[in-house]
Amino acid sequence: MSNINHLETDLMGIMLKNPVIAASGTFGFGSDYANIIDVSRLGGISGKGLTLNGSKGNDGQRVYETPSGILNSIGLENPGVRHFVEHEYEVMRRTGAAVIANLGGHIENDYLEGAKLLNKVDLDILELNISCPNVKNGGMSFGMIPETAAEITRKVKEVSRHKLLVKLSPNAYDIVSVAKACEDAGADGISLVNTFLGMAIDIDKKKAVFNNVYAGLSGPAIMPIALRMVHQVSKAVSIPVVGLGGISNYRDAIAFIMAGATAVQVGTMTFAVPETMINIIDGLEKYCIDNGLENISQIRGII
Question: pTM for the full model?
Fold first, then answer.
């Protein structure tokens, strides 16, 4: 058998065993799936989105199935940064996958104080979530225009000792300009896309399904649009891009890599098929062998 590591991936100077990362909000902190799949095979885990003081999340219905996807209105339910530092970090570290903390916030101070607290642990990457559409004040607003995205990126970069991966909203007016502004402000990498803003109506009850009316759409339905955005951003910035949005199998992952992504994140499909990421890793390995590639990076950005 060949000793070539076909899938080893350099993401912002962090070496991943492969480019497949569990997306934030879909995999907990890793332990939830430990008895279902071999979590140690993953390139990384982006943990459940954190806020400084934690949150109980949104009331009412939180998930609604749509054709080829789901709408969710979880509202960043999480135990808070301090709890993560004291209880979840070591659990994630023991998985053997790269540890990525996803940090969100309602106001600027939430991000800054959260980033400072996360300096207490040795993260591989800090993923700055300026894109969640389910939090009423903050979240999406920080990532909607270049100026505010750049400002929060710059300020977090100043107080954090970790590699900074900024997660963008597909609902931004001009996602390329937002990405470039984040790069100029010191981001080490960009991840995109988060969920698209959507809604559902219960015609029998004559009311919106979600208490917040709007919710985030994810799953295979969004992949063509996410792929286009990843391609556009990859061509516009010189820092690594992590692509996500509806990835269901290794062919989808390859498409994102060909579009310019250094790594990919997989989320919604894990709910339906928990082994999805393992299957993708195996598929990428076979693709490299079948196509005579020494490393998967050889096809990066070829489109």
Answer: 0.95
